[in-house]
Design brief:
Nuclear Transport Factor 2, Chain: A, alpha+beta, 8-stranded antiparallel β-sheet, 24% helix, 17 strands, 9-stranded antiparallel β-sheet, Inhibitor of vertebrate lysozyme, Ivy
Length: 350
């Protein structure tokens, strides 16, 4: 994740900054264009102006959020309020186990242009005139940064106040027992994609053999359970082109075919977009896949969805041997449409 300390410094003032409701006609054209470029489909409920910022109260894919822009028209980030029960298990367990006597004031899922998506939880000690604290978690629920009190001190303070007659020895024993109990407890499940090889739907196998044929593959098919909706057959055709056949995991109905593009066939419009967005930063396109829907497949609106392109970009992280991966989707015209927080499945770039 990008420098969390800077993110914290940026976010906290925004909460307290004075925000004035303004009409869209008062919003600079550069800000309007930035919003249009950031999201393909959206609805603005209200515009606000704060010192050096414009804030759009928006609805994106049916979800309320707030998109923040600089006065010059640069998108900073978008915050989507979410419920506690919607958060990763690792994240909710951390709060529950370590902050007795505190309550969650708010939780936002933050999206940034470069893919640095994360959760921001604001907590406050129960009582009058208590201050807010901020905890930052990655997309899997692992704590990345916090300015909240040390959990050991919190638990000791909580036990002391709920057991005012307890001796120091009893407090020490109780908090130690609680620590040991948590240490022996099974680790919470992290919200990682649950992907394993499996026996695919017979209808999917039959369709694959009929439309593609394993005998016509140079390698594969290797079947992967992508999620609760899709089963994917990864294979390489006789021309050594890597492909992905996606099926409905329950019915075996063919959904789409993905074709991994060689570097000399990368979409020029997408490459230009990346060059502009990363603006001099070093990055590498790891994967570009064009997905085309099956001729018989129809979406919820009864129409055949248009092709789209899935792109994985990597960047080196200072102080880490492992790069970070940014996952994006583009429409059939090469226009940016979406950021993805996690890999599609175990065959994706990790």
């Amino acid at each position: 994740m990008k420098k969390i300390a800077l993110v914290l410094a940026m976010l906290l003032p925004l909460v307290a900054a004075a925000q004035t409701k303004v009409k869209e006609t008062a919003v600079p054209r550069s800000v309007i264009l930035a919003l249009e470029k950031t999201y393909d489909s959206y609805k603005v409920r209200t515009w606000y102006q704060a010192p050096g910022q414009y804030i759009a109260e928006v609805v994106i894919d049916g979800q309320d959020g707030r998109a923040y822009f600089t006065a010059s028209g640069d998108w900073q980030y978008t915050a989507f309020p979410i419920r506690f029960e919607e958060c990763p298990t690792l994240m909710t367990a951390f709060f529950t186990d370590n902050y007795p006597g505190y309550r969650v004031k708010s939780i936002d899922y933050i999206e940034e242009m470069n893919g640095d998506n994360y959760y921001r939880m604001m907590i406050i000690k129960k009582g009058i005139a208590e201050r807010d604290y901020e905890l930052i978690f990655d997309t899997r629920g692992k704590l990345m940064k916090s300015n909240a009190p040390d959990p050991a001190a919190v638990k000791r303070d909580y036990y002391t106040h709920t057991n005012p007659d307890a001796t120091d020895a009893e407090v020490s024993k109780a908090t130690k027992t609680e620590t040991n109990r948590q240490a022996s407890r099974p680790k919470p499940r992290t919200d990682e994609p649950m992907v394993v090889q499996f026996a695919p739907n017979e209808a999917a196998v039959a369709d694959f053999e009929k439309s593609i044929g394993s005998k016509r593959c140079k390698t594969g098919p290797e079947w992967i359970n992508r999620n609760d909706e899709y089963a994917v057959a990864y294979f390489t055709d006789k021309q050594k082109v890597e492909k992905e056949a996606v099926y409905d995991i329950h019915t075996g109905t063919p959904i789409m075919i993905g074709k991994v593009l060689p570097r000399d066939r990368y979409n020029n419009g997408i490459m230009k977009y990346l060059a502009e967005k990363f603006n001099g930063e070093k990055y590498k396109v790891e994967k570009m896949v064009v997905y085309e829907y099956n001729s018989k497949y129809r979406g919820a609106d009864g129409k055949k969805p248009k092709p789209y392109t899935y792109v994985v970009v990597s960047q080196k992280v200072k102080g880490s041997r492992e790069p970070k991966f940014i996952r994006m989707e583009f429409d059939s015209k090469g226009q940016f449409t979406n950021l993805l927080a996690q890999p599609l499945d175990e065959k994706d770039v990790q």
